[in-house]
Amino acid sequence: MTAPLLEVRDLSVVLSRTERDLPVLDKVSFDIAPGEVLGIVGESGAGKSMTGVAIVDLLVPPLRRSGGTITLAGDRLDRLTPRQMRRVRGKRVGFIFQDPMTSLNPVLTIGRQLTDTMRRHLPVSRSEARERAISWLTRTGLPNPARVFAAAPHELSGGQRQRVVIALALCAEPDLVIADEPTTALDVSVQAHMLQLLRDLHEETGTAMMLITHDLGVIAKMADRVAVLYAGRLIETAKTQALVTEPLHPYTAGLMQATPAPDETGVMRVRAIPGSMPGIGAAPSGCAFHPRCGRAQDICRQTPPPLADAGGRAAACYFPLHREAQP
Amino acid sequence: MRSLIEALRGRPGPICAAVLILLFIAYAFVVPLFSADPFSMAGMSILDAFSPPVWMDGGTAAMPLGADDQGRNLLTAMAYGLRTSIMVGGISVVIGLVLGGALGLLSGFVGGRIDAAIMRLADVQLAYPALLLAMVIDGIATAALGRGRSNEMSIAIVTVSIGIAFWVQYARTIRSSVMIEREQEYVAAARVTGRTNTAILIRHILPNVMAPVLVIATINLGIAIITEATLSFLGIGIPATYPSLGSLIRNGNAFLQSGEWWISVWPCLLLVVLVIAVNVLGDHLRDHFNPKIRGRS
Amino acid sequence: MSGHEVLTLSSVSKAYGGRASLIEKLFGRQPKSLQAVREVSFTIRKGEVMGLVGESGCGKSTIARIAAGLMAPTGGEIGRAEKTRQQMIFQDPFSSLNPRWRVHDIVAEPIRTHRLRPKNAVSARVGELLTQVGLSEADGAKFPQAFSGGQRQRISIARALAGEPDFLILDEPTSALDVSVQAQILDLLRDLQARLHLTSLFITHNLPVVRLMADRIGVVYLGELVELAPTDAIFRRPRHPYTRLLIDAAPDLDAKDRSLHPIPGELPDPSDPPSGCVFRTRCPFATEKCAAERPLLRQIGAGEVRCHYDLDLTGRELAA
Question: What membrane topology is given (chain B) (predicted)?
């Protein structure tokens, strides 16, 4: 096995309060191999966006990183000075945000934003940057790239803007792209285009991707592996196929049953998980999911289950589902 | 009230300001209960005219801050003056708030021609300084009612003039808040339920647009007090024969050159401290109730 | 049939703009108008749930607002059953509840407005409603800010039920919620539907959700109703190419078949819609006739389709 590109170990983030710090992310560990797409799944407040933001050190006070190591291709990102970190962002780690309206500078032309990014991170001349920018706009499937190059963000449609955001994240040829809900603000038809584009560019450039989303459908189509977050903890990781067919953690299974889908006979099924995810600082003792779990026993209420690795997949559960199916 | 206490918790500056304002109010309204009106015959004693503050040569303990040219005890005279200033300021703010509030609600909710008419009127008014406008209104009142009018009438005219001079700010603030609120889905929900426009405006929208204008009102209180003082100082507000901070300052102004500085300096000082206190409190409340700034300070 | 219609829309249209501004008058320019809804007709019968799907900006929310009486159409007619009490549930659980009102007063408002209960029975009724939607009577004393998005949507549902509606409009009621919370709200709505036999119009962009909730589904594209059929028929045998492409476009949970099915092309500018059939610029089957002639909404099989052709779209690979 090749060495991982990104190694995150025991990453913790807290919300600083005068009285005490509240845990937002609790010792989250995962790897991303070169060229791999890792899906990060969870509901709002689970900490999935926080994970991406914490990696590139963009946490805004009162949030702060309280522990753990982040290693990107052998370099400890958690030890970098803010100045060094700025060189990592954009150059080595690209970021695609959810909202295409706010992630572009409204007063600069698309071309200016692309060439600025490239000239900051790559040894290219002005004319070279311009050429590359046009080529990126072409690759993202934008009609009339020369016109888009000269356009201001507000002159483009939502879908076009999101294509530009993708080009902007990839143009400095990063090793890793963190895509935070890249299609959530988009309509179904635009979403499919955007996923197709992300997939094409991913295959073309070989960049690794961290795809943060709440949409299991997007995960099923895009991710090689999945990490599921619940109340700031990583509760399950597995290859995508294994996760959607045989989830080990009851929460993962519950999340899939909660997505309305037809069964074999075409009848729509939906099953809700009772209760709600605890808020920040309100996690119960033991397994954070135990109050909502039908399989919970005394031990679940007392000690948080470790993320037990079993044959390439892991689940933080004492009584996982599909145990029988495991060899 | 509870949210006001909540807003002040752990903030020494605004707490000091609030305490100071309460002390001034107590001073302005309690002292006149126990002393004769310095502007009546009983309150004057010509023998004590120009009596300096107690620590200076010739000062007496009975008049710790000294006396003016008519022998009025400045400590009592200032309480009477402050009382007038606070009342004129407070009532004029209420007039501006009610007038501006009503016009703003109407403008923002009805929109169209009514909105355009009200807002153009506001634009025209904004082209004149508030002070000038108050002078014009005062002038019109004088022309209409003649010169020989009572103190009470003068005070009423000053109060109304200042009130009218400040409606625009309230109207604009309320209007823009109303325009945001009327698009909220809770308004649509009330509509679907069958509530009338009046009910929606009064019961649903009004409570949601009050917080920002109440904060503006606090800040405007300081401005209104200064405006009153300025008008009185210029001699077109409250007559020199009636106590207000402005008329006291004006009265003392004549003696600044001749060494009797205390006659105008004390009321000036009181005015400055009062307005600073009101502004500190108002600024803090504005920041506190503004969700965009909240949490940063 | 007659007497069972709760709401009938006949050829309802809504255009925005179109009134010339001063500058446009001065320069003799034609004002720009936007046809948000164009000749939409459908009937909702007592006890049924009618769904409307479409992408953002297609006009489905405008149709909802017209149906709710919040907006007047610029063309066509709306027929309502005598004395229909309507209620509406909105998308945004944060802006749909007045932040200055206590939950009790929010839920009591429709009861008080329509005097549905004697004064002394209002409190008991509010408590009953809060319990019915999975909250507690004590929650009535709190302000909406004390609740999560899902709980706020429950309060909205309680408020709607308080009005004892004959007709309920739900405008994207679960779109702002997380999957697991959405499932809870859908469960609650289905349970209420089964018990109270509500008549409702359910608007969403989410096909699985509308498939779960609706008896009949209307598909809206660029302000037009392009297909209207029973839910089962829409999914088993979609007849409009847009319906079929929309069904395929949403990624499902199948990780083995990872193909994506984007709808070809981009949405045209709504203020300058294509001639003829509105979908022709993106339709794989478009012909010259589609550009020349606007298709009528015509009856085919169990439903109605606005398409010149009777296409068999089952089992064909359509997407680009």
Answer: Multi-pass membrane protein
Q: How far is B181 from chain C (nearest CA, A)?
A: 9
The confidence band for C133, taking pLDDT boundaries of 50, 70 and 90, is: very high
Model confidence over C137-196: pLDDT tens digits? 999 999 999 998 999 999 999 999 999 999 999 999 998 888 889 999 999 999 999 999
Q: What integer is the mean pLDDT of B225-245?
A: 81
Provide, as residue numbers in chain C, all residues whose Cβ is less than 8 Å from the Cβ of B186. 95-98
CB-based contact (8 Å) between B191 and chain C?
A: yes
Kindly determine whether residue C87 and residue B192, on different chains, have CB atoms separated by under 8 Å.
yes
**How would residue B1 be classed by pLDDT, with cut points 50, 70 and 90?**
low
Helix (H) or strand (E) holding B158: helix B151-165
Please enumerate in sequence order all residues whose Cβ is within 8 A of that of B33, keeping only pairs 6 or more positions apart, or say none.
none
Pairwise CB contact (< 8 Å): B185 & C110? no
In sequence order, the β-bridge partners of residue C227 are C219, C305
Helix (H, G, I), strand (E, B) or coil at A109: coil
Residue B149 is which amino acid?
R
Residue C270 and residue C277: Cα distance in Å, rounded? 13
Answer yes or no: do A187 and C55 touch at CB < 8 A. Answer: yes
Q: What is the CATH number of the domain that holds B121?
A: 1.10.3720.10
Nearest CA in chain A to C252: A217
Distance between start and end Cα atoms, chain B: 22
Q: Residue B40 falls within a domain, yes or no?
A: no
A191 vs C contacts (CB less than 8 Å): 249-251
CB neighbours of residue B183 within 10 Å: 10
CA angle C29, C31, C34 (to 5 degrees): 150
Residues of CATH 3.40.50.300 domain(s) within chain A? 33-53+83-229
Interface probe for C, chosen from B180, B181, B186, B198 (most Cβ of C below 10 Å), is B186
C62: which 2 tokens? 């405008």
Is A273 in contact with C266 (Cβ distance < 8 A)? no
Q: State pLDDT tens for residues C244-295.
A: 999 988 888 888 889 998 888 888 888 888 999 999 999 999 999 999 999 9
A267: contact with C, CB 8 A cutoff = no
Question: Using CB atoms, which residue from C86, C98, C100 is nearest to B192?
Answer: C86
Q: How confident is the model at residue B297 (pLDDT cuts 50, 70, 90)?
A: very low
pLDDT for A29:
93
Whose CA is closest to B124, among B108, B106, B136, B111? B136
Does residue C202 belong to the interface with chain B, where contact is any CB pair within 8 Å?
A: no
Spatial separation of the C-alpha atoms in residues C264 and A195, rounded to whole Å: 14
Residue B151's domain comprises: 76-289
Q: How many distinct structural domains can be found in chain B?
A: 1
Rounded to two decimals, the pTM is 0.84
Better pLDDT: B50 or C20: B50
Residues of C in contact with B207 (CB under 8 A): 98, 100-101
What CATH number does domain A33-53+83-229 carry, 3.30.420.10, 3.50.50.60, 3.40.920.10, 3.40.50.300?
3.40.50.300
Most confident of B126-140, B173-187, B274-288: B173-187
pLDDT digit string (tens) for C299-312? 988 899 999 988 87
- All residues of chain C having their beta carbon less than 8 Å from the beta carbon of residue B211 are none
Contact A95, A57 (CB under 8 A): no
Whether B51 maps to a domain, the answer reads no
Please state, as a whole number, how many other Cβ atoms lie within 10 Å of the Cβ of residue A324. 6
Contact C98, B186 (CB under 8 A): yes
ipTM: 0.85
Mode of pairing for the β-strands spanning A63-72 and A75-76? antiparallel
How much is the pLDDT for B142?
Answer: 75
Would you call C306 an interface residue with chain B, using a CB distance cutoff of 8 Å?
Answer: no
